[in-house]
Specification:
CATH architecture of the largest domain: 3-Layer(aba) Sandwich
Strand order of the largest sheet: 2-1-3-12-4-13
CATH class of the largest domain: Alpha Beta
Structural class: alpha/beta
Radius of gyration: 22 Å
Length: about 280
């Protein structure tokens, strides 16, 4: 007959006793297509990001694994293979894969005190006056991995057939070429425009011919069906508190953001509506 001690041991699930059992980590994928850098270059920052979440969330070291992708396809391959439950993605990535990947946003980025962003189309000074004058002109940007994002969302349904777009991961080169040759136009976000203003001699050669209405910033999303793992709930809570500790504030500075906040559902619903409509 088994003693109470041996009986208790017998009732413990086998997987808890097996030294071969490895608990699956909570994976967070960060994807902003067109961003500079590589997955390898971002590795240390992602490791620091993961450790920050573990400490703040009261999770053991090794619980969180974060990975960055500057291109959509490797990120998609990773999501399909590893099934990460959480991600921080660009607005255009979210809109394009919202349905196929079951992306459910719950936080969003605050940058320079704002949870909105605007986009700007610039051309060589005196070359173009409005959107209509850009017919047949190539618009270059690192925000155009999804060509539909510009006419549907940024332009709110204008210019589908008239505008040509080209994605680049070297926006500074495109800015200089536009300022020098004036053959095309460039699409910049707020941060890029602010940086351009500090570059002596470049901004003076360009002029803004379009400014978008306010759009939501990058969302933090749950990926796939809801999972009951309590570690995910702790991770979500830690993400919301990210900027409240010294370590977290350093990570935010590395990401060039202020903090993460509860998202504005109306703003995201409007972006989804715009993306779902055909441009003129």
């Amino acid at each position: 007959m088994l003693s109470k001690r041996h009986l208790a041991a017998a009732l413990i699930p086998f997987w808890l006793l097996s030294p071969m059992q490895e608990i699956e980590p909570i994976r967070i994928v960060v994807c902003h297509p067109g961003s500079p850098g590589t997955t390898e270059q971002a590795k240390k920052t992602m490791q620091a990001f993961a450790r920050c979440i573990e400490i703040d969330g009261g999770l053991p070291e090794g619980t969180i694994r974060c990975i960055f992708f500057p291109e959509a396809e490797p990120a998609l391959d990773y999501i399909r293979k590893e099934s990460p439950p959480l991600g921080i993605v660009s607005l255009s990535f979210y809109l394009r894969y919202r349905e196929s990947l079951q992306l459910d946003p719950f936080l969003q980025v605050v940058r320079r005190g704002k949870s909105t962003q605007t986009f700007h189309i610039l051309a060589k000074k005196g070359r173009h006056s409005n959107l209509e004058s850009l017919k047949g002109v190539k618009i270059v940007s690192n925000h155009l991995f999804d060509p539909a994002f510009l006419p549907r969302v940024i332009l709110r349904g204008k210019g589908k057939h008239a505008l040509q777009v080209e994605e680049t991961r070297k926006p500074l080169r495109a800015i200089r070429k536009t300022a020098r040759e004036g053959d095309g136009a460039i699409l910049l976000d707020d941060e890029q425009l602010g940086t351009l203003g500090k570059m002596k001699g470049l901004l003076e050669k360009l002029e803004e011919i379009f400014r978008s209405e306010k759009l939501p910033t990058e969302p933090v999303v749950a990926i796939g069906p809801e999972r009951k793992d309590p570690r995910i709930a702790k991770t979500r809570a830690a993400l919301k508190r990210l900027s409240e500790t010294k370590r977290g504030a350093e990570i935010c500075a590395e990401f060039r953001i202020d903090r993460l906040v509860t998202l504005d559902p109306k703003a995201f619903a409007e972006a989804v509506r715009l993306y779902g409509e055909e441009a003129e």
